[in-house]
Amino acid sequence: LAAQSHPNHQTIVKISEKVAFGGEELVIIGGPCTVESLEQMEIVAQKLSTASIQGLRGGVYKPRTSPYAFQGMGEEGLRILARVRSHYNMPVVTEVMSISQIEVVAAHADMLQVGSRNMQNFDLLKALGQAGKPILLKRGLAATIEEFVMAAEYILSHGNPDVVLCERGIRSFDDYTRNVLDLAAVAALKQITHLPVIVDPSHAVGKRELVAPVARAAIACGADGLIIECHPQPEKSVSDARQALSLEDMVRLVDSLKPVAKAV
Ligand code: PEP
Ligand code: MN
After folding, report:
1. Which GO biological-process labels does this protein carry (predicted)?
2. Does the beta carbon of 234 lie inside 6 Å of ligand 1?
C-alpha cells in the first residue's frame, strides 16, 4: 500500500482545513520538544503564527531515556495544546506512546506522532490504523528504509491512509551530531512510496547551530516539510535544550527556505 504503483502519484495528507502535506506548499511544524506551560505555548504560537509556519508541535507524553527525567505534562498538556490550537487556528502534532493514549490524544490533536522508539511497536501501529487521525511516523533509531516503509504499511493496512514519513537521523559511529541525517533516504522514499516525506533536522543534528543548513538541504532533497524544535528561551528547555532554536531563529530559518523550495 505504501509502494509507488504508478509514477508520480502523490498522496496528500490533510491535517486541518488549510494544512496538507504532499501538496505544492511546504508544511513547517514548529514548537518545543516538551509542552511546559500554557504561557510557553502561547508565546510560541503567537510568534510562529505570524510567519509561514502552519502547525505546532509539543510533546506531552515524552519517551525519555532516563525514568527520572520529566515524563511530560500528560492530559494537562493536551488541554494546553487544544487551547492554543483553537486560539491561533494552527493544527497540532503530538506524540502518542501507547495504545491507551490514542483516544485522548486524538481528541485534542490534529496529527498523532509515532516516535522513533516506537516505530516497530506493531500493536501501536495497528491500533493507529483505526485512530481516525493522520499519523506522523518517525524513522526508528536504527531502522532500514525497508523497515520504515513496512512500519507505515502496518498503519495503512489497518485502515488509515493518512501517513506522513519523517526522517530524523539514524545512529552511526560518529557522535559529533546526535544522529546522522540520511538525506538519501528522503530522496529514496519520495521515489519508492507515494506518501509525503518530511525531515526533523533538530533530532538529526542535536545542535542548534546545525539545524538551519541541514533543514535547507532537506528541502533541496525534496522533503515535503519540516518539523523543528524551538522555544522562547532555548537554553531553558526542559528537554532537548541543546538543539532548540530561538523563535527568532526559527522564523529566520523558514524565510531562508523559500528560495530553496522555489529552486526544487
Ligand atoms: C520528539 O519529536 O520530541 C522525539 C522524541 O523525537 P524522536 O522520536 O525522533 O526521537
Ligand atoms: Mn525532542
Report:
1. aromatic amino acid family biosynthetic process
2. no
CB 151 within 8 A of CB 137: yes
Give the nearest ligand 1 atom to 166 CA: 9
What is the pLDDT, as a whole number, of residue 8? 80
What confidence tens digit (pLDDT) does each residue in 14-36 have? Answer: 999 999 999 999 999 999 999 99
- Cβ of 116 closer than 6 Å to ligand 1, yes or no, is yes
Q: Phi-psi category of 132—alpha, beta or left, where left has phi over 0 and alpha has psi -120 to 50?
A: left
Contact criterion met (CB below 8 Å) for 1 and 159: no
| Residue whose C-alpha cell reads 540520511 in the numeric block | 182
Q: Which residue has the CA at smallest separation from atom 9 of ligand 1? A: 116
Structural domains of the chain ordered from first start: 13-263 (3.20.20.70)
Distance CA 130, CA 91 (A): 20
